[in-house]
Amino acid sequence: QEYTAIKLRVKEWAPKAEEILKGKLPADSNVFLVPATLRPETMYGQTCCFVGPKITYGIFKVSEKEYYLVTDRAARNMAYQSVFSKEGSIEKVAEIAGSDVVGTLVHAPLSLHTEGVRVLPMETVLPTKGTGVVTSVPSDSPDDYATVTDLAKKAAYYGIKEEWAKMEIIPIIDTPSYGDLCAKTLVEKLKIASPKDTKQLEEAKELAYKEGYYQGILKVGEFKGEKVEVAKPKVRQQLIDAREAFAYSEPEKKVVSRSG
Ligand code: ZZB
Known about the structure:
- Belongs to the class-I aminoacyl-tRNA synthetase family.
- It comes from Anthostomella pinea.
- By secondary structure, the chain is of the alpha+beta class.
- The protein has one domain: Valyl/Leucyl/Isoleucyl-tRNA synthetase, editing domain (Isoleucyl-tRNA Synthetase, domain 2), CATH 3.90.740.10.
- It is 30% helix and 23% strand.
- The strands form 3 sheets. A 9-stranded mixed beta sheet has the order 8-6-7-3-2-9-10-5-11, with helices on both faces. Strands 4-1-14 form a 3-stranded antiparallel beta sheet, covered by helices on one side.
- The longest helix has 18 residues, at 198-215.
- The relative contact order is 0.18.
């Protein structure tokens, strides 16, 4: 699976994270949260970044001034994909729980929310997929729409500020079947009530992928008016050229054959 890894630069740590990381990083260095996405063309619509609250993340040295926050598993994969300056070697400078990162303010490349977006908790983040960090595009991802809706409703319970989950959802892709807020339309159409409705969310995701890819037209950005199918690789390349993203592949899953 070929992902695009996006670099979300930390602008301001949550107080807990600040405390934990004190003295562990050079003063003038940058730390990036690095979500893996299959939809780089939707980065205009990022409204927050998800971590699994119970997942333990590492902060890994990329070069003198650059560090990535991802799972150990992702760092190991990255080491073999020449992401770190020393091929094959991994240097972990700190460990931190997702729950302690929640509230951190990050700069999300291409996002129309240029002031930054917050790191928020998502219970359904899989530690075994991608980098364990997920960037949220509630206009076009049904999982993200269901999660931000839930977070906004129960902000106190999740220990977050309501406004962090209520960032404006700006339409970025127009589609003939589901309008320009594809995820919202599908969540309502399939009567998805919470992020726990995993079966319907899976179906909504498939529909959103197909419609977005084959029928979607970008409404914003440099490739406004172009078909998603055409614009997608261009947005990806632009992000990579700007060093705001890089290619990241997931190793092949071992398939155990039925015949043994
Ligand atoms: C931004 C985005 C915007 C995404 C969108 C999707 C959509 P898939 O399809 O199941 O292979 N993701 C990445 N890593 C994880 C993880 N560890 N746990 C849970 N979710 C994860 O999954 C690929 C997508 O799942 C990725 O692409 C990421 O969300 C999320 F408009 O990034 B995506 C219709 C989907 N639209």
